[in-house]
């Protein structure tokens, strides 16, 4: 763009016969566009925050990949564990028993997922031990450290003696929201029933049931885990479910979760392929991440229309500017200015409005996002997975929004600039 075009465009933009009217319309156009830009950036930053927070919690509180046996009993997990741990970059591997169960307390009832784990081995692949906010994680592996077990066994002995059964009580760690559903705290007794495993009593097969004592409560920050997960010792879980030495899968953790596909292929190769299969953390939470990414795309498409509506203010401003500058345009045309020059002048004026609105909106969005980040805006975690609104400022988000808005702003200048370039010398000077 030539210096002449920029000079004339800036002069037209700042000086006008209808200066007050044009200034007001220009201000409205800039504010409208800035609000659209700010809204778009804030919403996308929140969606980026949701995705990043979900990944952080998933990688912190759960494992990165699980090795399954597709057919037959999985009682050779020790060999699989050693094979997987020998892969460079694998930080640890440990067996897990996984079952859906029904839990009952004196005041509540809830379905949950029972995880039977080796307490010491699980520390290598998960931060669960650091997420315990009440009670003691060590109770899972060392009953002698957990006074809850001995205290409650004496209460149960009379009933168990009457039924002719051996008194058994297994310590477990519950999610904070699951504990609230059951209205229990460390030391409380709960009962478990599962139809996933059955034992023979007489001539009948009945669901497995047992008694548990709450040894601790953990909080991961993600509602799905805090409301549905509980953990018990591996041997205790195998005994409770009457499944012998079988496990559900071997869980692993790697040093670079972003390269999980490479680790997945190496694990599959190391364990020999079928009947073994590997499922990584992206597959395990595919639905959640797809939901967030789809929501982000939908929000972007919807909110872009705010910027498009705001761009009509640019069109209005430029049309009024064209009407106001008809005489000046005619003079330029009479001295030989080409139509492309006239178009360039008004397109540059529209670009200035778009640029001002975009810059103002970006600054406003950054300020609001920082406030939301520091204030920790409370939301319902039953709906949104988290208790506070996560916000992540991303250069990529700002770049996409700024580019899209400027493109819309330039597109809005096309009609007025083409109309201006169609003004003839006679049209503007006939009354002079």
- Number of discrete helical segments: 18
What structural category characterises the helix and strand content?
alpha+beta
Instruction: Give helix and strand order, one letter per element, not per position.
Output: HHEHEEHHEHEHEEHEHEHEHHHHHHHH
- The average pLDDT score comes to 78
Q: What is the strand arrangement across the widest sheet?
A: 2-3-8-5-7-6
- Gross morphology: elongated
Q: Using only CA atoms, what is the Rg?
A: 33 Å
- Poorly predicted spans: 156-165
Largest sheet: 6 strands, mixed, barrel
| Strand portion | 15-25%
Tally of strands: 10
Helix amount: 55-70%
What is the total domain count? Answer: 2
Query: How far apart, in Å, are the first and last alpha carbons?
Result: 31 Å
List keywords for this structure.
elongated; 6-stranded mixed β-barrel; 56% helix; alpha+beta
Q: If you had to describe this structure to a student in words, what would you say it looks like?
A:
With 432 residues, the chain is of the alpha+beta class. It is built from 18 helices and 10 strands. It has a 6-stranded mixed beta barrel with strand order 2-3-8-5-7-6, surrounded by 4 helices. A hairpin with a 2-residue loop joins strand 6 (189-201) and strand 7. Helix 12 (286-324) runs parallel beside helix 17 (414-421) and helix 14 (339-375) packs antiparallel against helix 16. The longest helix has 43 residues, at 19-61. The radius of gyration is 33 Å and the shape is elongated.
How is this fold's topology laid out?
Blueprint: H1 3-14, H2 19-61, E1 65-69, H3 77-85, E2 90-104, E3 109-117, H4 119-122, H5 128-131, E4 132-135, H6 147-163, E5 170-175, H7 176-182, E6 189-201, E7 204-218, H8 223-226, E8 229-233, H9 234-241, E9 249-254, H10 260-271, E10 276-280, H11 281-284, H12 286-324, H13 326-334, H14 339-375, H15 381-384, H16 395-412, H17 414-421, H18 425-429
Parallel strand pairs: 3-8, 5-7
Antiparallel strand pairs: 1-9, 1-10, 2-3, 2-6, 2-9, 4-7, 5-8, 6-7
Helix pairs in contact: 1-14, 2-12, 2-14, 2-16, 12-14, 12-16, 12-17, 14-16, 14-17
């Amino acid at each position: 763009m030539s210096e002449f075009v920029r000079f004339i465009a800036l002069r037209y933009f700042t000086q006008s016969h209808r200066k007050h009217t044009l200034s007001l319309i220009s201000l409205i156009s800039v504010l409208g566009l800035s609000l659209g830009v700010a809204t778009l950036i804030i919403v996308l930053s929140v969606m980026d925050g949701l995705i990043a927070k979900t990944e952080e919690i998933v990688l912190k509180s759960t494992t990165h990949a699980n090795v399954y046996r597709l057919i037959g009993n999985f009682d050779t997990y020790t060999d699989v564990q050693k094979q997987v741990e020998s892969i460079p970059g694998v930080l640890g591997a440990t067996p897990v028993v996984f079952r859906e169960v029904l839990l009952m307390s004196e005041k509540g009832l809830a379905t949950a997922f029972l995880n039977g784990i080796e307490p010491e081995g699980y520390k290598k692949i998960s931060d669960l031990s650091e997420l315990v906010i009440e009670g003691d994680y060590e109770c899972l592996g060392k009953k002698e450290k957990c006074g809850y077990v001995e205290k409650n066994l004496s209460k149960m002995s009379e009933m168990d003696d009457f039924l002719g059964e051996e008194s058994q009580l297994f310590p477990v760690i519950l999610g904070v929201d699951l504990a609230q559903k059951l209205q229990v705290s460390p030391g409380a007794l709960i009962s478990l029933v599962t139809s996933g495993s059955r034992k023979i009593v007489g001539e009948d097969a009945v669901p497995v049931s047992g008694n548990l004592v709450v040894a601790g409560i953990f909080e991961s920050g993600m509602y799905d885990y805090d409301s549905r997960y509980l953990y018990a010792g591996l041997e205790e879980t195998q005994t409770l479910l009457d499944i012998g030495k079988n496990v559900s899968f071997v869980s692993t953790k790697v040093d670079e979760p972003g390269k999980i596909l490479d680790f997945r292929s190496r694990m599959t190769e190391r364990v020999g392929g079928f009947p073994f299969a590997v499922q990584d953390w992206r597959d395990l939470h595919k639905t959640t991440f797809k939901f967030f990414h789809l929501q982000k795309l939908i929000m972007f498409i919807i909110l872009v229309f705010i910027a498009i509506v705001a761009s009509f203010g640019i069109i209005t401003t430029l049309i009024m500017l064209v009407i106001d500058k008809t005489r000046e345009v005619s003079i330029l045309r009479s001295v030989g200015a080409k139509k492309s020059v006239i178009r360039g002048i008004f397109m540059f004026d529209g670009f200035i409005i778009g640029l001002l609105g975009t810059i103002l909106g970006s600054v406003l969005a950054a300020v609001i996002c920082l406030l939301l980040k520091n204030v920790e805006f409370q939301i319902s975690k039953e709906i949104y997975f988290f208790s506070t609104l996560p916000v992540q400022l991303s250069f990529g988000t700002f770049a996409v929004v700024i580019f899209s808005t400027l493109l819309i702003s330039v597109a809005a200048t096309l009609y007025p600039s083409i109309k201006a370039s169609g003004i003839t010398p006679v049209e503007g000077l006939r009354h002079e």
